Amino acid sequence: MLGVIVSLLALTAGVWAYPSGAPATACLDMTPQHGPSEQTSTPSYELVVSNDTYAGGDEIEVTLRRTGNSAQFRGFFIQARTPGSTDAQGQFTTVDSGTTQTVNCGSVANSQNGVTHTGRSDKTTVTVTWTAPANRVGHIQFRATVVETEAVFWVSEVKSAYVQDPTAGPLPTQATSSGQDIGVTSSGCGSTKGCYQAPTNCAPPACDYFSSWQTSGNSVLFEVSGTSNGFVAVGISDDNMMGSDDIYECVYDSDTGSTTVFSTWSPGKTRPERDSTQGGISAISGSYVNGVVSCKFTRAINDAAAGRRKRQSEKVNNGRFYNLRDNYYVLMSKGSTSGNTISYHATNRVVSSSKVDFQSNTQVTGAGSPDIVKAHGSLMMIAWICTASVGVLMARFFKHLWPEDTLCKEKVWFAIHRAMMITTVVLTIIAFILIMTYNNWLWAFHAGAHAIVGIIVVILALINPLMALARPHPDQPKRFIFNWAHWGVGTVARILGVVAIFLGMDLAALDLPPAATFIMVGWVIWHALAEIVLEIHNCSTSSKAGRAEEMEMDNAAGDTKSKPLRGGNYSGGHNIRKGILGLYVFGMLGFLIALLVYVGLN
């Protein structure tokens, strides 16, 4: 429903913990802090107003009363709000100070913009006087929470008819039921309507982001859809950055089960400011089905009157209204909601590659992934496909190939292993810093399992070198504990690193094509084959004692206290093993380069 979808204070505890009325701390979210759940039945109470329109400074009588012979009530809390806003408007005056008192909501002292009870006495009716703000703020609706007993109360269902602002345009439009799919489709994209789709050429409901526009006369029909449990928004912008944008939020309110559209203006990185007049939009419908939020609405191409009305009293956009005969970038974002209030969307946003002609039927492509996201993905791929794999193979299968040779005063295998694993850790840390910087150091909820697995990989990547620095000497009886711990942490990190890459490839911020996933699968198979072949070769050329030493981490070539590898019973095959390594590295680099090319070109 397009209108006030506000969760009001459940006074379950308010009547009992606050018998003298609702506290000011209940003003903003107006949700119960504890106690039983609210009633879902139709309340037997109503809010009646003395006027159906208002002007600045007008006084209106507001009466909360029971209907018929329903039960009496003990507690209540009333506010006046504009559609889509959580700000209490106007000022209340009590008629009977013995039963009612005002509440100061917000930061303004003595605002008196809420009214509540003074005690637990039973009531059948309460009347108060509301004075409108000096400057009109749009259509007003009164909402009340009503409490009969500690366990019986209603929230958000007791509401008045709208008190109209004659300068604010049409009343909010009722949206369709959120359980009925309104049928947003990609059919006609490029022929009868223009479209933006991410991933490219996707079809709802499989799109992360979808918007379409179809001009008819002096209006444009917009369709918006995306995978989200909260909201999907489309923005019209003169540049490809957030700020000074005309935005339309398609919001699923889990508290009420409704889906609707809010006309908003984005000043920048602060929360978009909603327009109580719904400047220039109409014919709104919305749905939420199986994790997909969808909306349709009609927007005037250039409604000068709507532009003047658009929150002019609060100077939002200074009354401007973008003329869709001009070209603009299309921005889309999505995220979670609390009631009908949207969350901050640090990274879950996309933008068209160029400005859009809304009079055309062009299929618009995305601007591609941000360079910082590409860098993050590329570094992680290099770390966990290349350097980690080579480092592990050297430690597992190549300890005996250069028994007399050293590299940087270390045994060859150890020098290569250490260099590869240090590189892996450094690349992982840099990639982590890059993506956290992109996210403004906020948790990326939209990234789901990828973010969780990625954090685990970073932690494990840091733990293993720290364990290596603190490892006991090979002659120590507890050395085997380190060997198994080092192997176990490293193995889990490698597996999860690959899993994180797979999960990241499906995110809209990177938006890689399916071919990239097949390349990644090809590398996994290539690596598995290499390990199997090396293991078979290892078993056929070494003694049982030699294989037992594969877990050991002897290090410095010049360390006379370090025991030598005892697995000396190798029957040769060193050149074969080197050839397998060379072939593996050649194939691995081919897969890696192909993936990096996809990332770079995306």
Automatic annotation (TrEMBL):
GO terms for cellular component: membrane. Its cofactor is heme b. The keyword Transport applies. Keywords: Electron transport, Glycoprotein, Iron, Membrane, Signal, Transmembrane, Transmembrane helix, Transport. The chain crosses the membrane at residues 379-398, 419-438, 444-463, 484-503, 515-534, 581-601. Residues 1-17 form the signal peptide. InterPro entries: Cyt_b561/ferric_Rdtase_TM, DOMON_domain, Ferric-chelate_Red/DefProt, Reeler_dom, Reeler_sf. Residues 339-543 form the Cytochrome b561 domain. This is Ferric-chelate reductase 1 isoform X2. It comes from Branchiostoma floridae.
